[in-house]
Specification:
Elements lengths: L1 E3 L5 H12 L3 H10 L4 E11 L2 E14 L4 E12 L8 H15 L4 E5 L11 E2 L5 E2 L9 E5 L10 E4 L10
The chain binds coenzyme A.
Coenzyme A (COA) binds next to helix 1, strand 4 and helix 3.
């Protein structure tokens, strides 16, 4: 079962991120992003198993900008599944449902920094060759983009401008 987060899920979401990443940074990032204008409540999704919240994914608004031009996009970050529930398809279900919901809400482009063995299965491709740059040092194979509608990436070039909350999370 996957649904948008509710207020009562906040604590479980914190614990899932903290235990999946083995540090509090991403959990704190989620809490900070909830207070940001870039936060999209319908794109903070939780996965439930036997009524327990075991997974979480967040898509936040970003811009892909040049000096003269700016295009709205989303970034997928972070996502986490409780260690005891990993490798059972929960993460994949969260990504697919998130992409479907984002498309339904009218979004066109999603950016992710993630493992190149994982995200291409959902349609992500390297973003650098498309002319999209990260504002931080990142290995080219981990910086990826996906279009939610055919042609949505056309003309989308420049540097991704993340909400400032991301700058406070290292690594
Ligand atoms: C990434 C994560 C959310 C995936 O959730 P999941 O429910 O285990 O995912 P699924 O069961 O759908 O998919 C498992 C696949 O992901 C791969 N995978 C998961 N984490 C991976 C990682 N850090 N590096 C490489 N591959 C990874 C597994 O190898 C597996 O691949 P396979 O299907 O080819 O065997 C989960 O492993 C997690 O919480 N990891 C720690 C936090 C993290 O690194 N988040 C991603 C960065 S924001």
């Amino acid at each position: 079962m996957i649904r948008p987060e509710r207020r009562k899920d906040h604590e479980a979401i914190f614990k899932i991120n903290e235990s999946a990443f083995g540090r509090p940074h991403e959990a704190l990032l989620v809490d900070a992003l909830r207070r940001s204008p870039a936060f999209i409540p319908r794109l903070s999704l939780v996965a439930l198993e036997s009524r327990q919240v075991v997974g979480h994914i967040l898509f936040t608004a970003v811009e892909v900008s040049t000096a003269t031009d700016s295009h709205p996009a989303l970034t997928l970050a972070p996502m986490a599944v409780l260690p005891a529930f990993q490798r059972r398809g929960i993460g994949s279900s969260l990504v697919r449902r998130g992409l479907d919901d984002a498309r339904e809400l009218g979004h066109g482009v999603v950016i992710v920094v993630g493992h190149p063995g994982y995200y291409p299965r959902f349609g992500f491709v390297p973003a650098g060759p498309l002319g999209i740059r990260a504002p931080f040092e990142v290995s080219s194979v981990t910086f990826m983009a996906l279009e939610l509608r055919p042609g949505a990436l056309r003309g989308v070039r420049g540097e991704v401008r993340y909400p400032p909350e991301f700058a406070e999370v290292e690594g």
